[in-house]
Amino acid sequence: MTAVACIGRREVPLHSMRTYLESLGALQAERGLIVSTGNAPGSDQLFALGASAVAPEHVELYLPWPNFERRCVVDGNKVWLASQALDKHVELAAAATPGWEHGGVRDTVKPLMIRNAMIVLRWNEPVDLVLAYPSYHKRGWSGTGHAMRVAAQLGVPVWLIDRQIFWNPAEGQPISE
Asked: Please, which residues have CB within 8 angstroms of residue 111's CB and are 6 or more apart in sequence?
């Protein structure tokens, strides 16, 4: 079964965008796709909510720790934890993170970044596409930008849903605007 990673910013202030993200999640499940996401408040939860309303068994949630936003997990969703990551997930997360090995990343943050790698790679089979709604004003486009850099390592295309264009990693890493 084909999979799509649905990731994005935590802040989704416009009701129309919240509805759009939820509808995109539902559309992926209607098409029979697996929706892979991180269950973070905002975009991730909206994508998952839409997909879960159609086919909860098509939602894969990758969590940094066991109780992360558990109230938003729907019966039937598949849940994986960063503690279950394969070596390849950790390697991808580290490669997409400057300073990983030299103390530039706190140990409490690493499970979030490993989770980002798991969203894109899943269990050694990458998603076919990443639908992203990054926080352009945040350094590196925040966690969404991190997952996009993982996707670039794997050659997975990234569609910026708000700009309606594919992100071209050759133009550089996500930076603040």
From this structure: 64, 65, 82, 83
Q: Report the alpha-carbon distance of residue 169 to residue 17 in Å, rounded.
A: 25
Res 1: pLDDT: 64
User: Between the CA of residue 104 and those of 2, 100, 101, 110, 150, what are the distances in Å?
Assistant: 35, 6, 7, 10, 18
pTM over 0.85: yes
149 is a domain residue: yes
Contact 64, 47 (CB under 8 A): no
Q: Does residue 153 lie within any of the structural domains?
A: yes
Q: Which two tokens stand for residue 146?
A: 């991190």
Q: How high is the mean pLDDT of the chain?
A: 93
- Measured torsion, CA atoms of residues 60, 61, 64, 70, in degrees rounded to the nearest 10: -150
* Residue 72, both tokens: 């938003």
Distance between CA atoms of residues 140 and 169, nearest Å: 13
State which residues form the domain around 102: 3-171
Mean pLDDT of 116-132: 96
Q: Which amino acid is at 107?
A: D
